[in-house]
Amino acid sequence: MLYMVELHHSPDRCPRIASDVRELSLGMYRDRHEVLQAHGCTWQGGWGCLSGHVTFLLLDAPGAHAVEAAIIDLNMTAWNTTTIYPVLDFDAAMETVENANIGSP
Questions:
Q1: Structural domains of the chain, count
Q2: DSSP string, 24-48
C-alpha cells in the first residue's frame, strides 16, 4: 500500500540553517533505502517545499506502523512533525469513483 508522509519543521529547525539538523538530514538521505528496507518499505518519491518547510515522501509499505517506525529510525521526527496518509494512485482513486454505489454510505 502507498503512504504519503507529510513532514513539517519550523524555520529555525531547517536543515539548511541548523547544523545539527543538517547532519541528521544528510544521514537520513544517505541511509534511507537501507532503513526503509529493514521495515519492509520502499522509497517511491520525495519532494520538498523549501519556503514552506514541508517535505513529502511517498512510500510503499505493509502498513502505517511500518512507515512510522521507519520515519522514527531515520531520525526524521527529531526535527519534524509528521502526518501519514494512506493513498491510492490517481487511476485507482478514479476507479473507485467510477464504481461508487451512489447514495449508499
A1: 1
A2: HHHHHHHHHHHHHHHTT-EEEEEEE
> How many whole angstroms separate alpha carbon 81 and alpha carbon 72?
11
Enter the C-alpha cell of residue 85: 496518509
d(CA 23, CA 18) in angstroms, rounded, equals 9
Beta strands in 9-97 (DSSP E): 42-49, 54-60, 81-87
Residue 43: domain span: 2-98
Residue 105 lies in a domain: no
Nearest Cα to Cα of residue 55 among 13, 5, 16: 5
Identify the CATH number of the domain in which residue 73 sits. Answer: 3.30.70.1060
Q: What is the pLDDT of residues 8-34, one digit of tens each?
A: 999 999 999 999 999 999 999 999 999
pTM listed for this prediction? 0.88
